[in-house]
């Protein structure tokens, strides 16, 4: 079984990082993609001044560096409600500001974006697509307003019974404060099989693209067959 896990709202000042590390102790091959708030207002509020903010961020960046199996992907900028319900100019500013902050603190990140509460204007989708981003979309509301956009959609929320019979499971949860938060669902997360192969979201996306080009090897892959169908054996018999 392949398992991809994503978790929302990682930031220096949001609790339960210790639980991610504890999960790694249980699953040594664990990988997780963390949708990370570049400039969480809580981190600003906790810091007395700019220097403090920098110190907090440096220490946090050092922890992330020790744990490269945690993949960082931007999640808004301040994580203000509706901040991505904006025009193109503003969307570009927000995305570049997040990139620049991560770069400044030498935090590697991938071009996979999730908006706070999934809320985005068509302009924001367009900017992300044109900047080469994959956009994480809501399983329960998967329609996107533009074409030619690479999207990532979860299939299992951490609080739901673990889907033991799927070949590929795309789990989704939160750091804190939601019913699928890691502190509330930790025992459920221990129901994942011990021999699972973990992929980050970006690794999954790479594999997804590879499946499309596998046609050259003489395999019968129908163009545009979603990777999920291919993994379930609906598109071809030779992959799985
Ligand atoms: Zn969030």
Q: How helical, in percent, are the residues? A: 25-40%
CATH classification, class level: Alpha Beta
Largest sheet: 6 strands, parallel
Per CATH, which architecture?
Alpha-Beta Barrel
Q: Mean of the pLDDT scores?
A: 88
Report the CATH superfamily: Glycoside hydrolase/deacetylase
The 3D shape can be described as globular
Number of helices: 8
- What string, H for helix and E for strand, traces the elements in order? EHEHHEHEHEEEEHEHH
Structural class, please? alpha/beta
Describe the protein in words.
The protein has helices at 17-26, 41-46, 50-66, 88-104, 122-130, 182-189, 201-213, 227-231; strands at 2-10, 32-36, 70-74, 112-113, 134-137, 150-153, 156-157, 168-174, 197-199. It is α/β, with parallel strands linked by helices and 240 residues long. The chain has one domain (2-201): Glycoside hydrolase/deacetylase (TIM Barrel, Alpha-Beta Barrel). It is globular, with a radius of gyration of 18 Å. Zinc ion is lined by residues 8-9, 75, 79, 116.
Draw up the topology in text.
Blueprint: E1 2-10, H1 17-26, E2 32-36, H2 41-46, H3 50-66, E3 70-74, H4 88-104, E4 112-113, H5 122-130, E5 134-137, E6 150-153, E7 156-157, E8 168-174, H6 182-189, E9 197-199, H7 201-213, H8 227-231
Parallel strand pairs: 1-2, 1-8, 1-9, 2-3, 4-5, 5-6, 7-8
Structure keywords:
single chain, alpha/beta, three-stranded parallel beta sheet, 8 helices, disordered C terminus, binds zinc ion
Question: Summary?
Answer:
The protein has 240 residues and is an alpha/beta fold. The chain is built from eight helices and nine strands. The chain has one domain: TIM Barrel (Alpha-Beta Barrel).
């Amino acid at each position: 079984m392949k398992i991809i896990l994503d978790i929302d709202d990682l930031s220096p000042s949001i609790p339960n990082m210790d639980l991610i590390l504890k999960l790694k102790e249980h699953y040594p091959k664990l990988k997780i993609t963390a949708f990370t708030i570049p400039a969480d207002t809580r981190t600003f509020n906790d810091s007395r001044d700019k220097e403090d903010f920098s110190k907090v961020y440096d220490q946090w960046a050092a922890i992330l560096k020790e744990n490269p199996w945690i993949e960082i992907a931007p999640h808004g900028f301040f994580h203000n409600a509706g901040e991505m319900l904006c025009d193109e100019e503003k969307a570009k500013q927000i995305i570049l500001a997040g990139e620049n902050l991560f770069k400044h603190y030498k935090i590697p990140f991938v071009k996979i974006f999730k908006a706070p509460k999934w809320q985005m204007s068509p302009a924001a989708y367009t900017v992300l697509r044109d900047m080469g981003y994959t956009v994480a979309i809501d399983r329960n509301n998967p329609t996107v307003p533009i074409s030619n956009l690479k999207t990532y959609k979860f299939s299992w929320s951490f609080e739901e019974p673990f889907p033991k019979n799927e070949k590929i499971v795309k789990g989704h949860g939160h750091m804190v404060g939601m019913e699928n938060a890691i502190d509330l669902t930790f025992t459920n997360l221990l129901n994942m099989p011990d021999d699972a192969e973990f992929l980050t979201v970006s690794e999954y996306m790479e594999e997804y693209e590879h499946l499309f080009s596998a046609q050259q090897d003489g395999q019968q892959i129908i163009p545009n067959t979603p990777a999920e169908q291919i993994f379930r054996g609906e598109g071809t018999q030779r992959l799985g």
